[in-house]
């Protein structure tokens, strides 16, 4: 028997806080409890869960549901939807049941085994953002500097250089405020009150030293802030078509748009495969090619997982640290020796 659809798995909508007296043993009021429950999950996660539930309901599913319905859903969507997306849908549906205090049908063996089969038959390689190399950053920098002097030109240069050398995520970039910058004699400390790997709000700091006159994210940043008269608030802001600097910060999605636009203007044939993550991948893989120490790469990017950093290092060194290189050189020596005989 189907029941009317309920809200997506935003637990704050379904958890009721009982009334309680003030003083010792008091329970937080509903509004405060809702605030805490909201803070327990990032907004991006809640948004993804809500979208997943909407897609399930659009297909004809209803919550609560059962394993038989989920298996039908998976079978009908298997060829049209990436398995990773279906995994997210199951997670969202499972979370909904969990916070309703109901049995979780996504954990049923039939559902789990069906999903494993879908992954094996329809699994696709994860599309990774193309890593920006040093020569790409050089081309982007040269192009931006060739443009007429403007607020947008100064902002874009500071954005590109800071994003690459600081290995910032786009959410971190747009969240930086002037109050988060600590200028020192030999560089800049950017304090991030919150980041993807720091959900508890302890804060992390990213250090950037001064570069040369040709390439220096700090000089570019100072120039942008001074010309735009930004003394407080968001560092990277929207700029209108009339080159007026807005009070509001850039939207995270705008970072991708700016990068793709600049890459297309530079004639990069891979512009469509770039995203804000190209900065982080690019910094780490470029550093690996330059033999930068593992710990320094990990520290600069703020990575918690060693495995992630090693993945980037291996990607950066897969041509320079390659068994085939030694074998080809050895074969060339043997061929030369044979020709001399």
Automatic annotation (TrEMBL):
Origin superkingdom: Bacteria
UniProtKB keywords: DNA integration, DNA recombination, DNA-binding
Domain (Core-binding (CB)) ranges: 27-101
Domain Tyr recombinase: 127-327
A Pfam family this chain is assigned to: Phage_integrase
Region Disordered, annotated ranges: 1-29
Biased composition annotated in UniProt, kind: Low complexity: 9-29
Protein name per the record: Site-specific integrase
């Amino acid at each position: 028997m189907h029941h009317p659809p309920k809200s997506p798995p935003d637990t704050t909508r379904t958890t009721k806080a009982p009334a309680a007296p003030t003083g010792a043993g008091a329970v937080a009021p509903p509004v405060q409890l809702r605030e805490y429950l909201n803070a327990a999950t990032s907004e991006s996660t809640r948004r993804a869960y809500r979208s997943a539930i909407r897609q399930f309901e659009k297909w004809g599913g209803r919550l609560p549901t059962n394993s038989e319905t989920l298996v039908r859903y998976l079978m009908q969507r298997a060829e049209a939807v990436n398995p990773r997306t279906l995994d997210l849908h199951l997670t969202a549906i499972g979370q909904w049941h969990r916070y309703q205090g109901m049995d979780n049908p996504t954990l049923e063996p039939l559902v789990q085994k069906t999903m494993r089969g879908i992954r094996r038959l329809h699994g696709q390689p994860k599309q990774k953002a193309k890593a920006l190399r040093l020569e790409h950053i050089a081309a982007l920098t040269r192009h931006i500097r060739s443009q007429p002097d403007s607020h947008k030109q100064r902002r874009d240069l500071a954005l590109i250089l800071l994003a690459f050398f600081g290995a910032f995520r786009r959410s971190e970039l747009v969240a930086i405020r002037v109050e988060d910058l600590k200028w020192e004699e030999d560089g800049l400390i950017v304090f991030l009150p919150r980041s993807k790997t720091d959900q508890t709000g302890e804060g992390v700091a990213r250090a950037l030293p001064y570069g040369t006159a040709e390439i220096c994210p700090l000089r570019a940043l100072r120039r942008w802030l001074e010309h735009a008269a930004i003394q407080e608030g968001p560092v990277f802001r929207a700029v209108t078509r009339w080159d007026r600097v807005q009070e509001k910060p850039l939207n995270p999605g705008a970072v991708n748009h700016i990068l793709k636009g600049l890459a297309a203007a530079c004639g990069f044939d891979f512009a469509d495969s770039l995203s804000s993550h190209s900065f982080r991948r690019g910094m780490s893989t470029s550093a690996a090619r330059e033999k930068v120490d593992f710990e320094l790469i990990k520290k600069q990017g703020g990575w918690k997982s060693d495995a992630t950093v090693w993945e980037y290092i291996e990607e950066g060194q897969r041509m320079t640290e390659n068994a085939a290189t030694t074998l080809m050189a050895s074969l060339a020596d043997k061929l030369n020796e044979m020709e001399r005989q």
